[in-house]
Amino acid sequence: MQLHFLGTSSGSPSLSRNMSATAVSFEKSKSWLLVDCGEATQHQLLKSDLSPYHLSVICISHLHGDHCYGLPGLLASMAMSGRQAPVHLIAPQAVIQFVMSTLAVTQVALPFNLYTMAIEQNDQLICFEFCKVEIITLKHRVPSYGFKVTETDIPRKLRVSQLANDGVESGPHYNLLQKGQDVDFAGRRLLADTYAFPSWQPRVAIICGDNEKPALLSPYCADVDMLVHEATFTHSDLMRVGTHTGHSDAKRVAQFAQQKNVSTLILTHFSVRYHGEGMLDALEQEARAYFQGTLHLAYDSLVVTIPKRLLSE
Protein backbone atom coordinates (compact mmCIF):
# COMPACT_ATOMS: atom_id res chain seq x y z
CA MET A 1 0.00 0.00 0.00
CA GLN A 2 1.50 3.31 -1.11
CA LEU A 3 0.62 6.98 -0.85
CA HIS A 4 1.43 9.09 -3.92
CA PHE A 5 1.58 12.85 -3.48
CA LEU A 6 0.54 14.44 -6.78
CA GLY A 7 -0.05 17.96 -5.45
CA THR A 8 1.08 19.53 -2.18
CA SER A 9 0.29 23.23 -2.48
CA SER A 10 -2.40 25.31 -0.82
CA GLY A 11 -4.60 27.68 -2.80
CA SER A 12 -2.56 28.08 -5.97
CA PRO A 13 0.30 26.26 -7.69
CA SER A 14 3.95 27.22 -7.98
CA LEU A 15 6.80 26.03 -10.18
CA SER A 16 7.54 23.24 -7.71
CA ARG A 17 4.12 22.32 -6.34
CA ASN A 18 0.72 21.58 -7.85
CA MET A 19 -2.54 21.77 -5.96
CA SER A 20 -4.01 19.12 -3.70
CA ALA A 21 -4.13 15.52 -4.84
CA THR A 22 -3.07 12.35 -3.02
CA ALA A 23 -3.43 8.83 -4.41
CA VAL A 24 -3.51 5.49 -2.61
CA SER A 25 -2.45 2.33 -4.45
CA PHE A 26 -2.78 -1.25 -3.25
CA GLU A 27 -0.46 -4.22 -3.54
CA LYS A 28 -2.94 -6.80 -4.82
CA SER A 29 -5.12 -4.62 -7.02
CA LYS A 30 -4.63 -2.48 -10.12
CA SER A 31 -7.44 -0.26 -8.87
CA TRP A 32 -6.46 2.82 -6.88
CA LEU A 33 -8.06 5.66 -4.99
CA LEU A 34 -7.63 9.44 -5.30
CA VAL A 35 -8.23 11.99 -2.56
CA ASP A 36 -8.81 15.47 -4.00
CA CYS A 37 -8.10 16.54 -7.57
CA GLY A 38 -6.72 20.04 -7.94
CA GLU A 39 -6.26 21.63 -11.34
CA ALA A 40 -3.73 19.75 -13.55
CA THR A 41 -3.78 16.59 -11.46
CA GLN A 42 -3.91 14.61 -14.69
CA HIS A 43 -0.62 16.25 -15.73
CA GLN A 44 0.91 15.08 -12.45
CA LEU A 45 -0.30 11.55 -13.15
CA LEU A 46 1.74 11.54 -16.35
CA LYS A 47 4.84 11.78 -14.16
CA SER A 48 3.75 8.92 -11.90
CA ASP A 49 3.36 5.13 -12.14
CA LEU A 50 -0.41 5.43 -11.79
CA SER A 51 -2.76 4.97 -14.73
CA PRO A 52 -6.03 6.93 -14.85
CA TYR A 53 -7.46 3.90 -16.62
CA HIS A 54 -7.43 2.04 -13.27
CA LEU A 55 -8.67 4.90 -11.08
CA SER A 56 -11.71 3.42 -9.34
CA VAL A 57 -12.58 5.65 -6.37
CA ILE A 58 -12.36 9.45 -6.10
CA CYS A 59 -12.87 11.23 -2.78
CA ILE A 60 -13.18 15.02 -2.69
CA SER A 61 -12.75 16.62 0.73
CA HIS A 62 -14.53 19.94 0.11
CA LEU A 63 -15.73 22.33 -2.56
CA HIS A 64 -12.78 24.76 -2.73
CA GLY A 65 -11.34 24.85 -6.23
CA ASP A 66 -7.79 23.86 -5.31
CA HIS A 67 -9.25 20.48 -4.33
CA CYS A 68 -11.63 19.80 -7.22
CA TYR A 69 -11.00 21.95 -10.33
CA GLY A 70 -9.05 19.15 -12.00
CA LEU A 71 -11.78 16.53 -11.74
CA PRO A 72 -13.86 17.22 -14.89
CA GLY A 73 -10.74 17.18 -17.06
CA LEU A 74 -9.46 13.98 -15.49
CA LEU A 75 -12.79 12.23 -16.03
CA ALA A 76 -12.87 13.43 -19.65
CA SER A 77 -9.40 12.00 -20.24
CA MET A 78 -10.43 8.72 -18.63
CA ALA A 79 -13.36 8.61 -21.05
CA MET A 80 -11.04 9.14 -24.01
CA SER A 81 -8.78 6.32 -22.77
CA GLY A 82 -11.64 3.87 -23.28
CA ARG A 83 -12.33 3.05 -19.68
CA GLN A 84 -15.57 1.15 -19.19
CA ALA A 85 -15.39 -0.05 -15.58
CA PRO A 86 -17.43 2.02 -13.10
CA VAL A 87 -15.92 4.90 -11.15
CA HIS A 88 -17.13 5.93 -7.69
CA LEU A 89 -17.16 9.59 -6.69
CA ILE A 90 -17.52 10.41 -2.99
CA ALA A 91 -17.87 14.17 -2.60
CA PRO A 92 -19.96 17.03 -1.24
CA GLN A 93 -23.18 17.48 -3.20
CA ALA A 94 -21.99 20.85 -4.55
CA VAL A 95 -18.89 19.21 -6.04
CA ILE A 96 -21.00 16.51 -7.67
CA GLN A 97 -23.21 19.20 -9.21
CA PHE A 98 -20.13 21.10 -10.43
CA VAL A 99 -18.70 18.00 -12.09
CA MET A 100 -21.94 16.89 -13.73
CA SER A 101 -22.71 20.42 -14.98
CA THR A 102 -19.22 20.85 -16.41
CA LEU A 103 -19.38 17.53 -18.24
CA ALA A 104 -22.83 18.38 -19.61
CA VAL A 105 -21.88 21.90 -20.78
CA THR A 106 -18.72 20.62 -22.47
CA GLN A 107 -20.62 17.70 -24.04
CA VAL A 108 -18.58 14.94 -22.43
CA ALA A 109 -20.34 11.58 -22.49
CA LEU A 110 -18.70 9.14 -20.12
CA PRO A 111 -18.50 5.55 -21.45
CA PHE A 112 -18.46 4.27 -17.86
CA ASN A 113 -20.89 4.57 -14.99
CA LEU A 114 -20.01 7.36 -12.58
CA TYR A 115 -21.60 6.40 -9.27
CA THR A 116 -21.89 9.47 -7.05
CA MET A 117 -22.26 9.48 -3.28
CA ALA A 118 -22.94 12.80 -1.55
CA ILE A 119 -20.96 12.94 1.68
CA GLU A 120 -23.71 14.84 3.46
CA GLN A 121 -26.06 11.91 2.89
CA ASN A 122 -23.65 9.08 3.68
CA ASP A 123 -22.08 8.54 7.09
CA GLN A 124 -21.60 4.80 6.71
CA LEU A 125 -18.48 2.78 5.99
CA ILE A 126 -18.13 2.46 2.22
CA CYS A 127 -16.69 -0.88 1.09
CA PHE A 128 -14.97 -1.68 -2.20
CA GLU A 129 -13.17 -4.84 -3.35
CA PHE A 130 -9.73 -3.47 -2.49
CA CYS A 131 -10.40 -1.08 0.40
CA LYS A 132 -12.97 0.46 2.68
CA VAL A 133 -13.45 4.19 3.25
CA GLU A 134 -14.69 5.90 6.39
CA ILE A 135 -15.67 9.57 6.23
CA ILE A 136 -14.44 11.94 8.95
CA THR A 137 -16.06 15.33 9.53
CA LEU A 138 -13.50 18.14 9.86
CA LYS A 139 -13.70 21.90 10.44
CA HIS A 140 -12.92 24.51 7.78
CA ARG A 141 -14.54 27.64 6.34
CA VAL A 142 -16.84 25.31 4.42
CA PRO A 143 -17.81 21.72 5.29
CA SER A 144 -14.68 19.62 4.92
CA TYR A 145 -13.93 15.93 5.36
CA GLY A 146 -11.15 13.43 5.80
CA PHE A 147 -11.02 9.83 4.63
CA LYS A 148 -9.81 6.82 6.58
CA VAL A 149 -8.70 4.27 3.99
CA THR A 150 -8.18 0.64 5.02
CA GLU A 151 -6.92 -2.04 2.63
CA THR A 152 -9.04 -5.19 2.39
CA ASP A 153 -7.61 -7.28 -0.45
CA ILE A 154 -5.06 -9.19 1.63
CA PRO A 155 -3.93 -12.74 0.75
CA ARG A 156 -4.88 -15.34 3.35
CA LYS A 157 -2.77 -18.15 4.80
CA LEU A 158 -4.06 -21.54 5.87
CA ARG A 159 -3.65 -22.93 9.37
CA VAL A 160 -2.36 -26.19 7.96
CA SER A 161 -1.43 -27.69 11.31
CA GLN A 162 -4.89 -26.99 12.70
CA LEU A 163 -6.51 -28.56 9.62
CA ALA A 164 -4.36 -31.67 10.11
CA ASN A 165 -5.15 -31.83 13.82
CA ASP A 166 -8.86 -31.62 13.02
CA GLY A 167 -8.57 -34.45 10.50
CA VAL A 168 -9.17 -32.32 7.43
CA GLU A 169 -7.22 -33.83 4.55
CA SER A 170 -5.78 -31.77 1.73
CA GLY A 171 -7.99 -31.16 -1.30
CA PRO A 172 -9.82 -28.50 -3.32
CA HIS A 173 -11.48 -27.29 -0.12
CA TYR A 174 -8.09 -25.97 1.04
CA ASN A 175 -8.10 -23.50 -1.81
CA LEU A 176 -11.67 -22.39 -1.05
CA LEU A 177 -10.88 -21.87 2.63
CA GLN A 178 -7.83 -19.81 1.70
CA LYS A 179 -10.05 -17.63 -0.50
CA GLY A 180 -12.32 -16.99 2.48
CA GLN A 181 -15.13 -19.36 1.57
CA ASP A 182 -16.78 -21.68 4.09
CA VAL A 183 -16.98 -25.28 2.82
CA ASP A 184 -18.66 -28.60 3.64
CA PHE A 185 -16.27 -31.51 4.20
CA ALA A 186 -17.05 -35.03 5.44
CA GLY A 187 -20.33 -33.94 6.93
CA ARG A 188 -18.82 -30.90 8.66
CA ARG A 189 -19.04 -27.20 7.98
CA LEU A 190 -15.53 -25.70 7.83
CA LEU A 191 -15.38 -21.96 8.52
CA ALA A 192 -12.80 -19.97 6.58
CA ASP A 193 -12.19 -17.63 9.52
CA THR A 194 -11.25 -20.64 11.64
CA TYR A 195 -8.75 -22.16 9.23
CA ALA A 196 -7.34 -19.14 7.38
CA PHE A 197 -6.02 -15.74 8.40
CA PRO A 198 -4.76 -12.58 6.64
CA SER A 199 -1.06 -12.56 5.72
CA TRP A 200 -0.61 -9.14 7.27
CA GLN A 201 -2.46 -6.60 9.37
CA PRO A 202 -4.66 -4.33 7.20
CA ARG A 203 -2.83 -1.07 6.55
CA VAL A 204 -4.65 2.16 7.35
CA ALA A 205 -4.12 5.77 6.29
CA ILE A 206 -6.07 8.90 7.14
CA ILE A 207 -5.95 11.60 4.47
CA CYS A 208 -7.49 14.90 5.48
CA GLY A 209 -8.92 17.85 3.67
CA ASP A 210 -8.49 21.34 5.08
CA ASN A 211 -8.97 21.28 8.83
CA GLU A 212 -8.36 23.75 11.63
CA LYS A 213 -9.12 21.28 14.43
CA PRO A 214 -6.92 18.14 14.43
CA ALA A 215 -8.63 16.88 17.60
CA LEU A 216 -11.64 15.91 15.47
CA LEU A 217 -9.56 12.94 14.31
CA SER A 218 -9.20 11.55 17.84
CA PRO A 219 -11.78 8.72 17.53
CA TYR A 220 -10.14 7.42 14.34
CA CYS A 221 -6.43 7.20 15.15
CA ALA A 222 -6.11 4.03 17.24
CA ASP A 223 -5.11 1.73 14.36
CA VAL A 224 -3.76 4.23 11.82
CA ASP A 225 -0.38 3.66 10.16
CA MET A 226 -0.08 7.09 8.55
CA LEU A 227 -1.77 10.43 9.06
CA VAL A 228 -1.73 12.93 6.20
CA HIS A 229 -2.74 16.40 7.38
CA GLU A 230 -2.44 19.93 6.09
CA ALA A 231 0.05 22.29 7.70
CA THR A 232 -0.59 25.39 5.66
CA PHE A 233 1.37 27.67 8.01
CA THR A 234 3.80 27.75 10.89
CA HIS A 235 2.13 28.56 14.18
CA SER A 236 3.41 32.15 14.31
CA ASP A 237 2.42 32.83 10.71
CA LEU A 238 -1.08 31.47 11.28
CA MET A 239 -1.50 33.73 14.31
CA ARG A 240 -0.37 36.63 12.16
CA VAL A 241 -2.58 35.78 9.18
CA GLY A 242 -5.56 34.87 11.36
CA THR A 243 -7.39 31.70 12.33
CA HIS A 244 -10.30 32.73 10.10
CA THR A 245 -8.48 30.89 7.30
CA GLY A 246 -9.71 27.60 8.72
CA HIS A 247 -6.28 25.99 8.43
CA SER A 248 -3.84 24.24 10.75
CA ASP A 249 -0.21 24.91 11.57
CA ALA A 250 2.69 22.49 11.91
CA LYS A 251 2.85 22.86 15.70
CA ARG A 252 -0.78 21.98 16.36
CA VAL A 253 -0.80 18.99 14.00
CA ALA A 254 2.47 17.65 15.42
CA GLN A 255 1.22 17.99 19.00
CA PHE A 256 -1.94 16.08 18.14
CA ALA A 257 -0.08 13.29 16.34
CA GLN A 258 2.30 12.89 19.27
CA GLN A 259 -0.58 12.78 21.76
CA LYS A 260 -2.31 10.03 19.75
CA ASN A 261 0.89 8.01 19.25
CA VAL A 262 0.67 8.23 15.46
CA SER A 263 3.72 6.43 14.09
CA THR A 264 4.06 8.35 10.82
CA LEU A 265 2.90 11.91 10.14
CA ILE A 266 2.94 13.46 6.68
CA LEU A 267 2.42 17.20 6.39
CA THR A 268 1.21 18.72 3.13
CA HIS A 269 -0.86 21.60 1.62
CA PHE A 270 1.78 24.28 2.19
CA SER A 271 1.14 27.96 1.56
CA VAL A 272 3.04 29.34 -1.45
CA ARG A 273 5.01 31.54 0.96
CA TYR A 274 7.02 28.43 1.86
CA HIS A 275 7.70 27.16 -1.67
CA GLY A 276 11.30 27.13 -2.79
CA GLU A 277 14.59 25.68 -1.59
CA GLY A 278 14.90 25.72 2.18
CA MET A 279 11.59 27.48 2.69
CA LEU A 280 10.01 24.52 4.50
CA ASP A 281 12.73 24.42 7.14
CA ALA A 282 10.70 26.45 9.62
CA LEU A 283 7.71 24.12 9.24
CA GLU A 284 9.88 21.05 9.67
CA GLN A 285 11.68 22.39 12.73
CA GLU A 286 8.38 23.32 14.32
CA ALA A 287 6.88 19.88 13.69
CA ARG A 288 9.96 17.99 14.91
CA ALA A 289 9.94 19.98 18.15
CA TYR A 290 6.58 18.41 19.05
CA PHE A 291 6.48 15.06 17.21
CA GLN A 292 8.87 12.17 17.88
CA GLY A 293 7.67 9.71 15.24
CA THR A 294 8.50 9.42 11.55
CA LEU A 295 7.86 12.75 9.85
CA HIS A 296 7.62 13.60 6.16
CA LEU A 297 7.01 16.99 4.59
CA ALA A 298 5.36 16.01 1.34
CA TYR A 299 6.55 17.19 -2.05
CA ASP A 300 5.09 16.54 -5.49
CA SER A 301 5.92 13.03 -6.73
CA LEU A 302 6.77 11.74 -3.25
CA VAL A 303 5.74 8.08 -2.82
CA VAL A 304 5.56 6.65 0.70
CA THR A 305 5.11 2.93 1.31
CA ILE A 306 3.24 1.73 4.38
CA PRO A 307 5.18 -1.32 5.61
CA LYS A 308 3.45 -4.62 6.28
CA ARG A 309 2.90 -5.95 9.79
CA LEU A 310 3.01 -9.68 9.14
CA LEU A 311 0.70 -12.01 11.05
CA SER A 312 1.35 -15.58 12.09
CA GLU A 313 -0.80 -18.48 13.28
Short structural summary:
The chain is an alpha/beta fold and about 325 residues long.
Account of the protein in words:
The protein is an alpha/beta fold and 313 residues long. The protein has nine helices and 18 strands. The strands form four sheets. A seven-stranded mixed beta sheet has the order 6-5-4-3-2-1-18. β8 and β9 form a beta hairpin. α8 runs parallel beside α9. The protein is globular.
SSE order and pairing:
Layout: E1 2-7, E2 21-26, E3 29-35, H1 41-46, E4 55-59, H2 71-80, E5 87-91, H3 93-105, E6 114-118, E7 126-127, E8 131-137, E9 145-151, E10 156-158, H4 160-165, H5 172-178, E11 183-185, E12 188-190, H6 192-195, E13 196-198, E14 204-208, E15 226-230, H7 235-241, H8 250-259, E16 264-268, H9 281-290, E17 294-297, E18 303-305
Parallel strand pairs: 3-4, 4-5, 5-6, 14-15, 15-16, 16-17
Antiparallel strand pairs: 1-2, 1-18, 2-3, 7-8, 8-9, 9-14, 10-13, 11-12
